[in-house]
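REQUEST FORM: STRUCTURE PREDICTION
Request ID: SP-0412
Submitted by: Lab K.M.
Chain count: 1
Length (residues): 208
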Amino acid sequence: MPDFTRERQARGPVCGIDEAGRGPWAGPVVAAAVLFAHEDEIPQGINDSKQLSRAKREFLFDIIVSNGRFGVGTASVEEIDRLNILRASLLAMQRAYSGLGLEMPPALALIDGIHAPDLPCPCYCLPKGDSLSLSIAAASIIAKVSRDRIMADIAREYPQYGFERHAGYGTKAHREALERYGLTPWHRRSFAPVKRLIDAGHGLAEAV
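STATUS: Completed
RESULT:
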């Protein structure tokens, strides 16, 4: 389970930053930054978002945004295709950090993974940080729930794709929908499975 050890060691405010949606074939990549000013602000039950049910994530999302300081940033499909997914993810992280609205930079930003965005404070990359740091785990929940809500909104525009279920990941149902209906403006054209469909002549789907 993640804990607050690394935050305590920093001797000053620490924000955790994580992203959701690097792997899907469709939709934006979403990052979140969370800063708990005091350890007693941290809700019980925070864990890596991938280890939590959807209902538990939604429950913790509401508590985190009520108790901690948070920011959410996105990078669009167009930015993903233009920059590549890594650079777009780092851009989303920068925007999430800006969303914290801090007057002074924190002592440290803990970043999930091995690449850090350019921020006005020291950064420390922590592979599998969402299972080690409570701040990163909280950010993983905010990012995941925020992105799932975006994908649910997209699903209302393109209900035939099931975005509310697979969130744009490359499931069998998603692949079959792409082959049957074609692409949407939300599909990442630089991703190989989507590019293959473009090369095969698949066009754009109709929105509802």
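NOTES: The helical segments are 5-9, 54-67, 77-83, 85-99, 134-157, 163-166, 172-181, 192-199.
Reviewed by: T.R.
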